[in-house]
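hi support,

uploading two proteins for the ticket. first:
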Amino acid sequence: MARRGVWQLRKLLVHYCDYGGSSRGTREFVEQILPHFQRDNPQLAVETVVQRGKHPGLLGEYLNTSTRHVDLRNAAPEEVLRQAVYLRSSLGRKASLQVKQRTRSQTPSIQGPWSHEVQDALKANM
């Protein structure tokens, strides 16, 4: 994703095995789709690394020095492209807002349940 006109993904590393079955889709991606992806994204440095006996994956390095790894085990070439676009479009940091569940108790409150009437009464006393 571009932040103030600057793409945040600096480098995309594609690692795969040259003979392993789980890397079949990634090999097809590297041979057929990756040249078009590189041409469409000139701001991005793309490297391919052959790691024999290892499962395939994408590693994104961002301007803020953080990295993200996406596992591509048994992924189709279209799925590899989708994950590459996902890494390109993300900012490289964790989500800032964490949605948490409210704490619920089995025992009722000693003070009683909350209501608008209680809040209005408190405001009137102030």
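and the second one:
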Amino acid sequence: MEEYHTWQSFGNSHRFSFCQYPFVISIAAKKIIIQRDSEQQMISIARQSLVDKVSRRQRPDMNMLFLNMKVRRTHLVSDSLDELTRKRADLKKKLKVTFVGEAGLDMGGLTKEWFLLLIRQIFHPDYGMFTYHKDSQCHWFSSFKCDNYSEFRLVGILMGLAVYNSITLDIRFPPCCYKKLLSPPIVPSDQSIPVGICSVNIDDLCQIMPELAHGLSELLAYEGNVEEDFYSTFQVFQEEFGIIKSYNLKPGGDKIPVTNQNRKEYVQLYIDFLLNKSIYKQFSAFYYGFHSVCASNALMLLCPEEVEILVCGSPELDMHALQRSTQYDGYAKTDLTIRYFWEVVLGFPLDLQKKLLHFTTGSDRVPVGGMADLNFKISKNETSTNWLPVAHTCFNQLCLPPYKSKKDLKQKLIIGISNSEGFGLE
């Protein structure tokens, strides 16, 4: 942190700081810098709210120190959008979520669940904001024109809040998205300067639309007469709500044939159109949403791949590493129930291992520091063995009754982890 503050204070002066050479700093160290920077901003904003309240001779209360979200499960997206719009000044406070009509207190678990459910709804194909590409297994921004791009800003805010509050999200964006998100890494003061525009090439397109990228590669490698055999112009077509619309890649593009001489220009303009120009309004709203929360010089230390890891964590699960780092309360790691538990879990297919991780931590992704950073704990639940396991996602804790057989443990565990949405108190 001293290095970071030195770098912030002296900028591009001749005073040395490791932050001038971010490639030598590990992603774990960068995460610590961003977390501490976020915490300092949170404290500063909360302190200012307190001072403002006292100076107006109003009685302070604890709620003013948090970004309090009250949402209904049945109206999750609209309620979240309304709350974040109304409380824009509070985005840099610690996040706290309440589901209307539920008794749960948010010690971290409700926040994780809010993120998970909201992301799941927004990225659903029926919602129309993002298109899922099966070949690349990732989402990309829908190019459909609309009157209001505020929901794209909401997704950006969500990603920013996740980084700011150290929560990993199950979002499948291609690497190109994070490159655009850092273009530029600090929001320009001049609003007329374009944001989210970066240089793109056929490799970037291949990560989203591999079939189209392959077709364009074939065009570039074609040895025959491109103009006569392909009969294409500098015009592309897109379907929007059942209507085919045409767009010129350059002025008068519908009258300019693609030839052997200009095909490289055509391919580059086409890729730029798909990844930059056709989604500019959607992505700029997303960019401003993210940076409205994560406005920090610490972002300048990150490369796009590192932003992706901070946002999404790693999808690679190492359950042996989780076993090695697990803490126990009421059990010893040699107890029969615990031995049964790990035999069952290590034998699970990947989808059930992810469900277990989601059940106990609120996310099925692994944080930057690996499984050890989860501080996973298994506690003995002195209840009937007819009961299912219980989880406290706030503390990454699994409460496990002392099941007498491996078969019984496996059956109860699968039922528990497969039916884990909602929050209730007995």
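thanks. also noticed: The first helix runs from residue 2 to 10.
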